[in-house]
Structures are given as structure tokens and as C-alpha cells.
Amino acid sequence: MDTTSRTEQQRPEPSRAERRSARNHRWRHSTTELAAVFVAVAAADLVANTVVHGHDGPVLLVLSALALLATAVFHAWWAHRHPHGPPGPEPAAPPGTPDDRAAEVTGPMHAHVPTTLWRLRATVSDSPGSLARICTALAGLEVSIVSLQTHPLPTGAVDEFLVRAPQPLDRAELTRAVAAGGGSDIWTDRADAHDLVDEPTHVLALATRTALDAAELPVALRRLFGRCTIRQFPGGGDGAAAGVDGHLMRLPVPSGDLIELSRPHLPFTPTEFARAQALVELDSLLGPRVPQVRARLRLPAGTDLTVRRADASDKAAALAMHERCSPDTLRKRYHGPVRDADRYLDHLLDPRHGQTLVVEAAEGRIVALAHLMWDDEGAEVALLVEDAWQRHGLGVDLLRRMAALALEAGVPTVYAVTHAANTGLISTMRRLSAPLDYQVEDATLVITAHLTEATETLPAPWPSR
How much is the pLDDT for 347? Predict the structure, then answer.
């Protein structure tokens, strides 16, 4: 449904009497202007004849100039002594005028009342006046509409509003007002300053990030649709058809896989499916890609190392590092013996599943691996440092970089899964200076760090990006 077309349908056509009155007004206005021109020409001709042919013509010309000069001086003095004050209040409009009716609908405006941003969604009928009724209901609560999007449906439309409401107004009152205006299936949620960006700009920014880094696709989808769960099924999953089915959205990938998004609190619309499909097609068209970013890491002993993003070409060097690690180091990383490191690395080095960092020695040998894997609203972090390079600060540096990358992607929490006896990882997580949650089950420890509540600002993951 197009908002502009619905608004134009409500604009009344002028009556025949109104059109006739407008034509009469234009005719009188043109006649008055023509008469003024004739009078001005006659006056100019009279003055010219008096000055040119009269005996006292030059004297009259000089006296006229002096009179004009004296008038200008007097006007300047008078304006200085008596400055114009602000205009007085306009007379009150008679009852029944449009201004009076608007005041009855909106009520008095309080300029200093604190406000709150809300996001609203409501299903409306595709009929003239449906949008106006909701807008009138919101105006009755002194709610200002900041932006509006329309999602067409086969039998109606979903209108999505970003509104600024008085702070005392709660969710229930807002919902009742929209329902009174004819809305159904109403959803409300608090918004913040980040929602003030218009939707085309927001989508273009997400497309740009996705084009630069394949690991950004899940992040872009989550930022586009809010809280949702994203799963990828190899080979098309269970054969379910692509499209929108209420709270589920299925997106086909040209490689044959299927991406499934679920959002229990809010159903998807065909418009949202089209946006998601465009992002997935862009990602598939560009293929696997990892930005070439790197940073220098100098150890206290004077050794120079390089930290960079990894990709599939690093698989052989990563497998060689696994061979050099002790069984105890591998058990702490994988929570048990490593039976198929080759298969694990195929998944971990795929940028569509997250971001992998490597620490590289001068001769090109990989001595540490770190993984940041997207998972619902958070991300899982995992570390593996070769035995000979442990206790040199590599784990802390990698964890800080991964936490900074998570914050850049808008992910507020990261968690690590390990053995309850892995004191080294526990100590490393504490170095984030963020509140930690601990959950132990069957000797497995899950440590969650709340990055947005950290007491220290994390440094940028790369010198310049």
C-alpha cells in the first residue's frame, strides 16, 4: 500500500461554487492592477509636463528632492525612537474552524515534557482513511510520528511507525490508541536514536558491510529484522519451500543451502523477505571474501607477530599447528579428543559462520587461532594457542580483538564453552573487565561476558579500518 496515494484519496475536490468564486476574485484583482497602472502613467505625465514646460520646473524638482530627503531622515529617527514590538496575539478563531478542530484533537502541546521513542506495527485495511484514523488516534495522545513504512499484503497492509510519545505514556495506552484507530495485530517496542536512520540508508549500509565481508551476512540479517534466530541447512534442509510462513522465513542460497530465520514475537512480511533475499543474493554473487586487515603484536621478549583475519587458504597451516599442540591443550579447546580437526576447520574457516583470527610468526607459521561464531543474539568465542606460545598474552589480545569485533557488529554478549577446570580461560575472560555470568552443567562451564557493561573501553581490533 502506498502512503501517498491513500492520503491523496482523502483530499476533497473543490465545488463548482468555489471554482466560480476563485475566477471572480482573479478578475477583480487583474482589473485593480490595470487601473493602478493607468493612474501611475497619468501622474508621471503631469509631473513631466510641469517640470519641462513650467517656469518654476527646476525649483519644483529641487524642492521635491529636499522634501523626500527630509521624509527619509524623519522616518529613520522615528524608527530609532519607537522600535516595532512583537506582534500582538492574533484574534481567536471562531469555533468550528480547522484550527479549533485540530486543537480539540491534539490537545495542548507541552514543549518540555520528556519523550520516548517507540516502534509500532499494525495491520490495517487497504481502504481510504485507514491510515488517517490511526494518525488521528495517535495525535489525541500527543504522539508525534517520526517515520512511516508500509508493507503491502494481499488483503491489506502492515504500517510500521517510529513515534515520539510523552514519557508517561505506557505501552498499553499506545496499543489501545492504535486499536481504536482500526489497527490489528499490534506490536510495540522501545526504540532508540539508532532507529532514527531512514530504512533505505540502513539497508544500504548493511549491504555495504556484507559486500566487504562474508561474515557480516548473519549480522546484517539480524540488524535488519531485530531479535531473530538464524540457522543454515546444508543441501536445502528438509525440503521446505522458500518464502514467508508467518514467523518463519526461508531463503534459498545458490549453493543449495537454505537459511532459515525465526522471529516468534513478530511475523515476517513479503517486503522483509524481498530485502533479505537481496542481501543473500549479493553475498552469493560476490562469493567468499575476507578483508585484508592485520596488526603487529610485539611480545615483551622482542618477538614480532602478526594478527590477521584467516580464510580457507590457512587450513593447511592451521592443521600443522594442531599437530604441534599437546592433547591437553586440544582437549580444553574442543572439550574432548579431536577426532576430525579437518572437518572442524572447514566450518571454522568459512567466513559465513563467523570470523577467525590467526597469530602468525615471522616465518609464516600459525601459532594461535581465535574464532568468533554468531549465535542468536550473542556470539561464541574460542581460543587455541600452541603450547610453546602460551602465557605470552596472546589469548588476552585475541579475546579483546574478538570482543571489539562483536561490538562493531552490534552483538552485546560473547560466551565461551570449556571445562570447569580450565582456569586459564576463566582468567582470560576476566581481563575483559566486563560482568561475567557462569553456568556449570555436567563439568561444562559456560562463561558469558556482557560487553556493553564493561568498565574499560575495548581498543579497535585493527589500526585503521
Answer: 81
